[in-house]
Amino acid sequence: MIRLSPKLSQKLSYILLFMATILAIVPVLVIMFLIVKNGASAISWEFLTSMPKDGMRSGGILPAIVGTFAIVMCAVVITLPIGVCAAIYLNEYAKDNFLTRVIKLAIVNLAGIPSVVYGLFGLGIFVMFFKLGVSIIAGALTLSIMELPVIITTSRNALNSVPKSFREASLSLGVSRWQTIRHIVLPNALPGILTGTILSIARISGETAPILFTAAAFYVPHLPKSIFDQVMALPYHLYIISTQIPNMPKNIIYGTALVLMMMVLSISFVAIFARVYFRKHRKW
Predict the structure, then answer these.
(1) Which DSSP string corresponds to 181-196?
(2) 16 in a domain, yes or no?
């Protein structure tokens, strides 16, 4: 059996890991290059701020942009307080017993469910049972359930990252547990919670299946006026113009994909910069 020296073994490991990284990055870069190359010509002020025309073969994608933003923001407003409160309970109050183990198992299972299942669940519960119809609120509620495991997990990790000595010092001064959480733990965990929230927004912004059954419309020639309106959404709009409309200009298809990609990447970069900023200003 050939035995490699520690120096050679380390060098080979470095090379293998570097090659694996390149293999993972290259396809993503190629996809981004093709989207930018084929879609840049379609990007203009009119494309971003006008209504679709001529059977969506011309004009802009403003209703799809506004619809995506409305659904995602409603989902975050619903999910964030529930997810953070659940994380506080599991991390700060709950004991390790059968109930908490069941809850943690349910969170893990929710994170692994395919998105199309969430869409069918939203259709059955929010659209049909609660009679909300195909609307912004039905889509937001469906996405909020899909987003909940990410918010809970990232919030728990952020709360866990706060040193226990902070809690002990606060409690030793006679401060109640809730006051300690509110004034000591949460402010220090806020950067991690914020980062997780932003990344979850980036994830649900590109989802098609959950909104396909609950919120998205083939074509809506006006902007939504309430949360009970049906809307266009960028992921579903991209699917429609790519597969359902004949003789669709190629640059419009790639231009729509480019707008969606830039939206998701922008949200991800905001999360990265927020994490770097808060880490630099962390006091511990």
Answers:
(1) IIIIIHHHHHHHHHHH
(2) no
